[in-house]
Write a structure and sequence with these properties.
The structure holds two protein chains of two kinds. Chain A is of the alpha+beta class. Chain A is built from 15 helices and 30 strands. Chain A has a seven-stranded mixed β-sheet, sandwiched between helices. In chain A, strand 10 and strand 11 form a beta hairpin. Chain B is an alpha+beta fold. Chain B is 27% helix and 18% strand. Chain B contains eleven helices and eleven strands. Chain B has a five-stranded antiparallel β-sheet. Classes of the chains: A alpha+beta, B alpha+beta.
């Protein structure tokens, strides 16, 4: 099905199942421990042996010798693989720059260099420690701040259109003429996905056919990447990933666990399972790159932005990509004169890549702090500053309207519900005992990408429905919204729908990432359901256009037939996908939020405690308010981490992230998270898809960090522009203790 | 994890003898730290002597009117004990500021005293660390040192000792009771129990090989308001940047000990004379001679301000 014109009235609009707060259909399996995650799939292949990954002890250089003889002789060991078994690295998979395995060169710390397979996990781990590796160290580059001044531009666009600096109007002149300006430098640190479930895979071979039971967000990418890495035909690979214990972008790609399990299984002739040990999870994998950003804002005295400059420098391994921290600035506020650039330095730290809301997350932490600073300088309410600079069109190309944009309503609603009017504009004015109290707000913005997605739905002889697609549920609630979609389309109760996900033998879906999963995957299923409805109608002698699917029956005029009757002579299958025409290019499809936060800062110690958080979200039709809320509050927690504690600490001498476990890379715990509230505006967007939905998974993170930072400033009067805002950064400047 | 042998001792002396006679043997109690370190091959004992059957899990009155806490009393039991809560409130407050409920259920009093540092370089076996592998150097000096020691450190080690419980015990003038392999017992003042690194940072404390902690005794209660304030980067489940244990009397006099700043609980009795003059006066004495790194120098001001907060709280 091609989506080329705005959606009209369709069965989803009935909203009998869609749009209702619905418990996860996979909830009972998860709460009883019956949902099998990759490492727990004991039943899928017999005789599973255990693998253990050895990571490089240096960040840059090469291996001169590796002695695996003692490991090979250790009890229970079946095979020991060395990266030196290969002359050069295995081919790269999609979207990555760091080789996962093979060859003597070490490009980053904890790169996989050996793999031990043994009868038990403990034997594999014990043997791994017996491998003796010698290295020749090279001097690496590990310091973004040192590399930034000489970093080259990362041009936008490509070919003849490539530009170092993107310009609209005349920024320099407008900024020089602006009566009120802000010019500040900000930094955001590297962050880790730090998901609960590590990378984990069981691999098994049947002659030339490889199956991996794994944990991955993007099944088709993973299959294609594994085929490249191992030089296999894609048709000889099956990837199965029905349950995923968090990914946040860390599991978009093929990782070393899958490659090594496959190689290990081949070598020992048995299925091999491996979970990457936690201390390797941070340096072996990808991370959100650190940024150094600069923002200049010029405004009229009544707060109209006239000039915006936003630039960001990040670093990566050679051939890597920058963190696109300027992305939202191109779209968020009207201003006739604009200038943006990215620079990209080369460092030899682990690969920087996508983490939840790549670009927008660190970009908004900075842009929305700068807006707070401008509001203060203007003597204007921060909400009003955003309102007067709202735009209904792409500011860089006014011929492109936003399909919908209810940002002002998000802000007005949020301000009212939160009690924003009680905020003191002057900082450090509110005390409760030893606590300094402050409120802050920020805008959230994130695109809602449209991408192809396919699915299959089968009407079984029993009248039950089975949905099959390689779409994944990374803890987001995909199972449930897919079941809701099928139930709505086919007119059956949700418990008549079985959803099977994450299998590469099924039709290729959007996958989970970039907050594109929900809208596209359900739209793909919508298309498949339309096909099935046609078959059912034909089978039962209805005109598909007239048939009403409701209450387990198909009806038209005064005739009504049980849906199950259509499958009496055998199951019927509808398979199709959604694809998008120009409509999603002519319109800017984005999601919006107003974030409001109240914090208390201990006047003695500088410790910050969040008291209340509110997000008001504009993200099209909300398919399942319950799981959508879970997505948003989870993202708000992530935003709290980014604002207050998360930072990959770089050792600039040895070239690695020092705090590489969950004890030292701190993310928020329950005690850090107070009352959270989410309001959805819930406007169906007919230019987005037949579902009229949009993404929600990343919006909840976008802007949260700045709202917290602005609240801390409002509490203390101390502006900290280097995230995370740990107590040491404002302690000395806190107001005198009464 | 390296292979090891295992036995369960029946008496304290037997346990001490079992560890003394075998190079590389260690005691195992709650295992909340040792087992983690074994999995990472930071600790590689050849033999474990499990002490859980030693019946050292009672809290009793001493003849002097204090309290004897058995080595195997769990952190949870100790924190919840009615006498401890009434007479030694700072100890309860310190214990519940540490770890999680699950860990405290398993962790023991002696084991808590023997926790190893959480220095990230100690935890990464690829990196030099004089505490883990003597003579290899200290990667933390010149490295990521935000969490590490500001005082009492040496050119060989800047690790901190992570216990909260021990900070309160140091404040309360606790004594560690031990038994050695030959059956002889001794008492070590908490003030002397943990060692500063000097040039032997691999030795965290004064225990000899095979010497087993049997109890910790507390002197008679000292009254006053008991407070423990642990400052960290998140609200719970993290090691202290700085912690302050204090007992403050009605007249403003009192005691203060600091955690998260050194290789042992840090208390300077001479500086406590200044308690009535305020936190700055005390802190300047407590931290005289401090040698912080650029990354952790904030801890000195933080310690002073945390003490000020505790003093204000005591006033009510």
């Amino acid at each position: 099905m091609k989506f080329e014109t705005p959606a009209t009235q369709n069965p989803i609009d009935q909203m009998k199942v869609i749009g209702r707060a619905t418990d996860r259909i996979d909830g009972p399996l998860k709460t009883t421990g019956m949902a099998p995650y990759a490492y727990e799939r004991h039943d899928v292949a017999s005789g599973q042996a255990y693998g253990y990954i050895v990571g490089a002890a240096i960040a840059k250089g090469r291996i001169t010798t590796m002695d695996t003889s003692r490991a090979k002789a250790a009890p229970g060991v079946l095979t020991v693989l060395s990266t030196l078994d290969h002359d050069k690295p295995l081919p790269l998979g999609m979207m990555n720059i760091a080789h996962l395995y093979g060859g003597a060169e070490i490009a980053h710390y904890h790169q996989a260099i050996a793999f031990v397979v043994a009868e038990t996990f403990e034997q594999a781990r014990a043997a791994a420690s017996l491998i003796q590796t010698e290295y020749a160290r090279d001097k690496g580059r590990f310091d973004l701040a040192a590399a930034a001044p000489s970093a080259p531009y990362e041009p936008s666009g490509s070919g003849a259109d490539a530009k170092d600096i993107e310009r609209v109007g005349d920024f320099a002149a407008a900024y020089a003429a602006a009566p009120v300006t802000i010019d500040q430098r900000y930094t955001t640190p590297g962050e880790s996905h730090a998901m609960m479930e590590p990378f984990a895979t069981i691999a098994g071979w049947e002659s030339e056919k490889l199956t991996i039971w794994t944990s991955n967000q993007m099944i088709a990418w993973n299959k294609g990447s594994l085929a490249k890495a191992l030089s296999l035909k894609p048709e000889n690979i099956r990837v199965d990933s029905p349950y995923i214990g968090g990914g946040f972008g860390g599991k978009l790609f093929l990782r070393a666990d899958a490659v090594l399990a496959a190689l290990g299984a081949k070598a020992c002739g048995r299925p091999v399972k491996v979970a990457m040990q936690r201390p390797l999870m941070i340096n072996n994998a990808t991370h959100r790159p650190a940024t150094i950003q600069r923002i200049q804002l010029g405004a009229t005295k009544d707060g109209k932005l006239t000039a915006i400059h936003h630039s960001s420098t990040s670093s990566n391994l050679p051939d890597g990509k920058p963190e696109t921290a300027i992305a939202q600035t191109k779209m968020l506020y009207a201003a006739p004169n604009r200038e943006y650039w990215l620079k990209l330095a080369v460092t030899d730290l682990p690969e920087g890549n996508a983490m939840r809301a790549p670009g927008e997350a660190p970009g908004l932490m900075v842009l929305e702090m700068a807006m707070d600073e401008l509001a203060e300088k203007l003597g204007m309410d921060p909400v009003e500053l955003r309102v007067v600079n709202d735009t209904q069109v792409d500011p860089g190309d006014p011929s492109r309207p936003f399909s919908q944009r209810h940002l002002v309503e998000c802000l007005r609603t949020g301000a009212e519900k939160f009690g924003w009017s009680r905020r003191h504009a002057k900082p450090a004015q509110v005390r409760e005992g030893k606590w300094l109290i402050g409120m802050g707000m920020a805008v959230g913005f994130r695109d809602s990408p449209n991408t192809k997605s396919a699915a299959r739905i089968r009407l079984e002889k029993t009248g039950r429905l089975t949905v099959e697609t390689d779409m994944t549920d990374i803890g987001t609630g995909t199972y449930t919204i897919m079941a809701q979609t099928a139930a709505e389309m086919m007119g059956v109760p949700i418990d008549h729908v079985k959803v099977i996900l994450g299998d590469s033998d099924f039709p290729v879906s959007a996958g989970s990432g970039g907050q594109w999963g929900a809208n596209n995957a359900t739209s793909g299923l919508y298309a498949a359901c339309v096909k099935l409805r046609e078959q059912v109608a034909q089978q039962l002698g209805f005109n598909a256009a007239d048939a009403i699917f409701a209450d387990g029956k198909v009806s038209a005029g005064n005739r009504s037939v049980p849906l199950a009757d259509a499958a009496r002579s055998g199951p019927l299958t509808g398979e199709d996908g959604i694809d998008y025409g120009d409509i999603v290019k002519k319109n800017q499809l984005s999601t919006f939020a107003g974030h409001f936060v109240e914090v208390a800062v201990d006047a003695y110690t500088g410790e910050t405690r969040i008291r209340r958080m509110l997000a008001v979200c504009d993200a099209g039709r909300i398919l399942n308010p319950k799981s959508a809320r879970s997505q948003v509050i989870g993202a708000m927690v992530m935003g709290a981490g980014a604002a207050m504690m998360e930072e990959l600490a770089v050792d600039k001498r040895f070239g690695y992230f020092v705090n590489h476990d969950l004890a030292s890379y701190e993310v928020p715990v329950h005690a850090d998270i107070p009352h959270q509230e989410v309001i959805f505006l819930d406007y169906p967007d007919d230019k987005s898809s037949p579902m009229k939905a949009k993404g929600i998974g990343e919006l909840g993170l976008c802007g949260v960090g700045a709202a917290i930072a602005n609240a801390i400033y409002n509490a203390t009067g101390v502006r900290v522009r280097d995230y995370p805002i740990t107590l040491d950064k404002h302690l000395e400047k806190l107001p005198a203790i009464a | 994890m390296k292979s090891f042998t295992y036995e369960r001792a029946k008496t304290p002396a037997q346990a001490a003898a079992a560890v003394a006679k075998q190079q590389g043997a260690k005691f195992l109690a709650g295992g909340t730290n040792l087992l983690d370190l074994m999995k990472l091959e930071i600790e590689t004992p050849t033999h474990l002597v499990d002490v859980q059957d030693l019946k050292l899990d009672r809290i009793e009155r001493t003849d002097e009117g204090g309290l004897r806490i058995g080595a195997l009393v769990t952190n949870t039991a100790l924190a919840a004990d009615a006498t401890v809560r009434r007479d030694y409130g700072v100890l309860t407050r310190a214990i519940v500021a540490g770890a999680s409920g699950q860990l405290r259920n398993k962790a023991t009093t002696a084991g808590n005293l023997l926790q190893r540092t959480r220095c990230p370089y100690f935890y990464d076996t690829n990196q030099p660390c004089n505490k883990r592998k003597p003579g290899t150097g200290c990667a933390a000096i010149g490295g990521f040192s935000r969490q590490l020691a500001v005082i009492g450190s040496s050119d060989h080690c800047i690790a901190t000792y992570p216990s909260d419980m021990a900070v309160a015990m140091r404040l309360l003038d606790a004594t560690v009771e031990t038994v050695k392999a030959d059956g002889k017992t001794r008492s070590i003042a908490m003030a002397d129990f943990h060692r500063l690194p000097g040039d032997t940072p691999e030795r965290d404390n004064e225990l000899e090989r095979g010497e087993l902690i049997t109890a910790v005794t507390l002197p008679r209660p000292i009254g006053g308001t008991h407070l423990y304030h642990k400052v960290r980067d998140r609200a719970s489940y993290a090691f202290a940047l700085v912690s302050v244990a204090a007992v403050i009397q009605k007249d403003g006099s009192g005691r203060a000990a600091f955690g998260g700043v050194a290789a042992r609980p840090w208390r300077v009795e001479a500086a406590e004379a200044a308690m009535t003059q305020g936190a700055r006066a005390v802190a300047s004495g407590v931290f005289a001679g401090a040698k912080p790194t650029e990354e952790n120098q904030f801890k000195i001001l933080l310690a002073e301000r945390t003490l000020a907060s505790v003093m204000a709280q005591a006033k009510g």
